[in-house]
Model the fold of this input.
Amino acid sequence: MSIENKIELLKADITKIKADAIVNAANTSLLGGGGVDGAIHRAGGPDILEECRKIVARQGGCKTGEAVITTAGRLPAKYVIHTVGPVWNDGKYQEEEKLANCYKNSLWLAVNNNCKTIAFPNISTGVYRFPKKEAARIAVDTVKDFLSETNQIEKVIFVCFDEENYGLYETLI
Done:
């Protein structure tokens, strides 16, 4: 199967996506927040927060570009992979590399947990102010590179909540 056939684009609510794993654009505390993070915690219920607290107790949160995995609680997915995207500071602090690491580390966690399907939101493009066009390019390029190196992931779904991101991804895919 070609790499392009393994990538799907949806304009939807990521909390409604049925996949082995959905990715949460989390903050370093892992304790919930606004945007995608708040929506996933609300829809998934208290089991997600409980597992996040255990991770925090064990390792002290999650650094930018890294990822951790929990149950999906009441969500239609099996797992939630929490990754912390970079806050945009004019590209002066390796923001592009850190964003690419969000995708790579999430994909590796999916592989290591036998996930065949994974859904990503538009990481860092909300309150973290990462330029949407650059974020989309990094997301698509990183996922395509990853899929060219492994057959363990069968489907990557980019889930866009807004029309602007959807249009950007559509031109790249």
